[in-house]
Structures are given as C-alpha cells and as structure tokens.
Amino acid sequence: MTNPEEKTIELDGSQGEGGGQILRTSLALSVATGQPLAIERIRAGRAKPGLMRQHLACVKAAAEISGAQVEGAELGSQSLRFVPGPVRAGDYRFAIASAGSCMLVLQTVLPPLLLAGAPSTVHLSGGTHNPMAPPFHFLERAFVPLVRRLGADLQLTLRRCGFYPAGGGEVEATIVPAVGALQPFELMARGTQQSAHAECLAPGLPRHVPTRELDTLGGAMGWSGEQLRFGTARQNEGPGNALIATLAYEHVTEVFTAFGEKTLSAEQVAHGLVKELRAFQKSEAAVGPHLADQLALLLALATWQSRKPAAFTCSEVTEHTRTNCAVIERFLPVHFAIAESRTASTVQVSSA
C-alpha cells in the first residue's frame, strides 16, 4: 500500500484535542490532495479509544469517493493507513446504523467533493442532532452560506430528524463545485443584527418541556412572540430534545444548540444556551467557536487553490480549532496565524 508519487502524511491521533476531528480532517484532505495518510494512536486519550462506528463510517465514506486502499478500518483500531485515488463525483449513500452523527460523515466528504469535476448527491442516515457534532440546522443556516461565498454550492434537505440514542435521521445533500478555484474571503465583522429566534424540537416528549425551555430562554434574552417557536418534528422521530437559537446578522448567521438530557431540567437546558448566546453577543467577533472550526478548513482549501489569503474573527479559539489548523498545515501549503483577543480573536490563513 504505497503511492510512489506522494509522500505519506504521518499523524499522531492523540495530538492536541485528540478527538475524531483529527481523523475527519485528515481523511478529507488526504482525498482532496491525493496524499496517503498514516495515523496512529487514534483517540488514544478517550474513554473508548480507537475507531467507533461513526468514525468507521467516515473512513468508509472517504474510501468510497476516492477508491482508496485502507488498512485498519475496524472497530477499536487505533491505527489507520489510507491511500486515496482521485476524488470521484457521484450519487452516494452513507449510513450509520447507530445514532452516530451522519453530519460528521458529510463533514468528511464535503471538502474533496467540493473539488470534484462535477456535482454530487449524498444521502445520509443516522443522527442529525447530536451533542458534540454540528446539528443539521447549524450546517443549513450558518455553514451553507459560507460555502456559497467560496463560489461553490451546498443544498441540504432534512427528510427525518434523528436524535440520540435512536438515530434514524435522513438528510440529502447536493454538492456543486465552484467553476474554477474556490475563492477565499475575509469575514472580520458580523454586521448589524437582522433577526433572532429560538425553536425547540422535542418529539416524543410532553408539551410542557419545549414550553418551559422557550419561556425560560425568552425571559432571559428578552425574546417573545414569533421569536419563540415550536420546531417541526414528528412524534415518531423522538424521543429527542434540541433547543436551537439562530442569530442572523448582516454578514453571517450563527446557530447555537443545547440538547436535553435526562439529568437536566428544561430550565437548565435553556440557561446553558443563554450562557453561550451571551458569550457570543459580548464579543465583537464574526463567528463563534464552532463555526471557526468549519471556516478554517474551507478557507484553507480556497487559499491553496487561489493562492490568495483569507481571514476571520471568532469569539474563542478553542483547542479543537488549534488542532484542526495544525492538521490542515500538514496537508496543504498554507500557514495559520492566530492572534487572540478578549473581544475578538483573528485567524489568518495564507500560502506557506
């Protein structure tokens, strides 16, 4: 399993934040650049180290879109060797049998498919609203507009919600590459606020749960009426609970989500989300910590293709973001410069 034309990128999967993001970003960039990947100590510091089902789904999806040769793709494996072929546009179906996030599978295959020679359709099944993963509504409202600013297109359709632990969600994604190179951009300010609203998805739960969550959030944020909504989800898609706040600004839309748990009251769920919202609103940054992760990879690909710099400001530079930038620099001839500030940290990406 060697590709004489490309040097293998060797990674320590326990570096930095040490989670599944290292695997997903490295798989995406291995396929996008054609560079073989060897990764050891995958999720070594986690309670259950190695590849879990959702990580295996990402490996298999990356292999399918590139005809890759793979070693170590099995449950619990802490080492993986991945030799990609050329990325292939097409009509794909990827399923996670458990409630693992199918949105993370999309996160893995999207970057290389944005560079393919034709549009692709990806049918995903599994979890759509999971803790520790970007929920569907976050990608649809916050992420998709940024893909379009690059000159490409991403269209997402939610066919069925999937919550932990049942899963069973269904999403369709249409990915249309840019004509020519992806175009980097600067996103330094969010601009004036245009709207704000919250919605609660609570299929299979008593009506008082979403009512209390929305009432608590509304009271804390000063939101009322149309700003507080009961989201659309069929009863048989639950039980599940996601409280979603959407802040639309002139230059960006941000989405924050809190998930209900058996150990938390409705009021605690709402107060947790309020804390996140206030932290973001207190900053002067364009994006929050989760969207920063997503932007780093998109802008790095655009800088690589166009050789033009890009930049954005974020409310917090997490260890997750730092680790993601370090992995990206291993695959692409780009350099990240991070300047932290109390009100807005700046992330710049330029050709190395």
Keywords:
352 residues; alpha/beta; Translation Initiation Factor IF3; UDP-n-acetylglucosamine1-carboxyvinyl-transferase, Chain; Dihydrodipicolinate Reductase, domain 2; 4 domains; globular
Task: Report the β-strand fraction as a percent range.
Answer: 25-35%
Text of the CATH class of the largest domain? Alpha Beta
The largest sheet has its strands arranged as: 1-2-4-3
Low-pLDDT stretches: none
- The CATH superfamily of the largest domain turns out to be RNA 3'-terminal phosphate cyclase domain
Q: Could you report the average pLDDT, rounded to the nearest whole number?
A: 94
Shape, principal axes of CA atoms: globular
Classify the secondary structure makeup into a structural class: alpha/beta
In DSSP terms, counting alpha (H) and pi (I) runs of 4 or more, how many helices?
A: 8
Number of strands: 16
And the CATH topology of the largest domain? UDP-n-acetylglucosamine1-carboxyvinyl-transferase, Chain
Instruction: Summarize the main sheet.
Output: 4 strands, mixed
Provide the succession of SSEs. Answer: EHEHEEEHEHEEEEHEEEHHEHEE
* Helix content estimate: 25-40%
* CATH architecture level-2 label of the largest domain: Alpha-beta prism
N→C terminal distance: 29 Å
Round the Cα radius of gyration to an integer and report it: 20 Å
- What is the domain total for the residues? 4
